[in-house]
Amino acid sequence: MTRKSVLCVVGARPNYMKIAPILAAMTGSALQGRLVHTGQHYDKAMNDDFFADLNIPEPEANLGVGSGSHAQQTADVMMRFEPVLDANRPDCVLVVGDVNSTLACALVSVKKGIPVVHVEAGLRSHDRAMPEEINRVLTDQISDLLFTTEKDALANLTREGIDPKRVHFVGNVMIDSLLWNLKRAVPAQETLNGFAPQGFGLVTLHRPSNVDDPVVLARLFKTLAEISKDLPLAFPIHPRTKAQAERLGLLDGMGHIRFMPPLGYLNLLGLLKESRLVLTDSGGLQEESTALGVACLTLRENTERPVTISEGTNRLVGNDPGRILAAFHDVMQKGGKRGRVPDLWDGQAATRIVSVLSGWLGACA
Ligand code: UD1
Question: Is the CB of residue 34 below 6 angstroms from any atom belonging to ligand 1?
């Protein structure tokens, strides 16, 4: 069997649940998946715990890039990725999502004439102040093969001049991970001890637009404290958010909010499954809550994942206290928005990717 070599890249937390099913689906296929980690995320809680929970194999190389400004981080990934690419000469490079590592590795590859495959292509928030939006637009422009998670993505890509023949709607690999691991989720009781199922809400916040401005963050924490009087909140806190909240003295006296370090994948899945509602600015949680039918209030003015609004349980509420509280009371009184699971979010996206990619690379069994 001639196997084609696919160099897969991960860098930051949201990449891990996307790459895990793809690597698993490549096992025993015509594709040989190999993994490189840029090291954009590095803490045990932001990295190692996810590798363990998701059974991701040890990367062949870790570039150890770490944190820095956008320019520093992106440039560092590019410089450290180039020799790895030269040493490996894969048949293609596969990148996922929209983090700085995604764009950096795609850019190095395309300039070396190595085809780039982008998983989760075509999502657009239409908000260029968001660093991820720049990464999405640019990665898609230089990708040879683009895999999309929802139908709106194709219209975004064709508007930007991308040949629809290169675009394949395959479903959502993050939902593959969710469905494959649902039975392994750690019961919420074990993480929260004392919160009853459906008797709590789950909060995550890490977007610069919510976290970096002290006024915005303080107002959000006050709103969450208000909500926690009616519904206790579990709040695994991202390092960016923790650092700012500590600087502002926001972690004490916040009502019934239970702060905790970032959680591993299976612990977070357990909380999500059993929560009454989710308050978040994460892209992943918007999709995961839609897949599980859990009400989601997104603390942003826009989303690059519109199917979670048009078909799922998601509502955009921004960061204005009045809007958030009104939406919260609506969920408490009426049970929240009902939704349906979007097309092809069925646990088979990675298998479709491997099948299309094998044909495209001319890999023969
Ligand atoms: C990055 C991604 C974002 C993703 C998020 C998930 C970009 C542009 N942003 O944002 O799309 O949703 O990851 O977490 O790629 N830190 C640690 N330990 C770590 C990693 C980070 O303490 O393992 C701290 C550092 O102080 C760092 C800060 O968190 O300065 C922010 O990390 P960074 O990777 O720059 O961005 P995120 O906000 O995590």
Answer: no
Domains of the chain: 4-171+345-364 (3.40.50.2000), 186-334 (3.40.50.2000)
Q: Which two tokens stand for residue 202?
A: 């789950």
Q: How far is the CA of 18 from the centre of ligand 1 (A)?
A: 17
Chain length of the chain: 365
Burial class (CB in 10 A: 0-12, 13-18, 19+), 330: middle
pLDDT tens-place string over residues 99-122: 999 999 999 999 999 999 999 999
**Model confidence pLDDT, tens digit, residues 137-173:** 999 999 999 999 999 999 999 999 999 999 999 999 9
Q: CA 44, 273, 179, 125 torsion: positive or negative?
A: negative
Which tokens go with 33? 């998946």
Taking only the tens place, the pLDDT of each residue in 329-358 is 999 999 888 899 999 999 999 999 999 999
Asked if 121 and 101 touch (Cβ cutoff 8 Å), the reply is no
Q: Which of 303, 281, 289, 269 is nearest to 191 (CA)?
A: 269
Determine which one of 37, 41, 206, 329 is catalytic.
Answer: 206
- Ligand 1 neighbourhood includes 67 CB (under 6 angstroms): yes
SS3 185: coil
Percent of the chain past pLDDT 90, that is, above it, reads 95
Residue 291: phi and psi, rounded to 5, are -65, -30
What atom of ligand 1 comes closest to residue 70's alpha carbon?
8
Q: What beta strand segments (E) does 270-328 contain?
A: 277-280, 295-298, 314-316
Quick one: DSSP state of residue 12?
Answer: S
Give the dihedral of Cα atoms 265, 270, 271, 275; nearest 10 deg.
Answer: 140
* Whether the CB of 130 sits within 6 Å of ligand 1: no
Answer whether 17 contacts ligand 1 (Cβ < 6 A).
no
Contact (Cβ atoms closer than 8 angstroms) between residue 145 and residue 324: no
Nearest CA to ligand 1 atom 16: 239
* Nearest CA owner, ligand 1 atom 20: 41
Active-site residue 37, yes or no? no
**Using CA positions, which residue lies closest to atom 25 of ligand 1?**
67
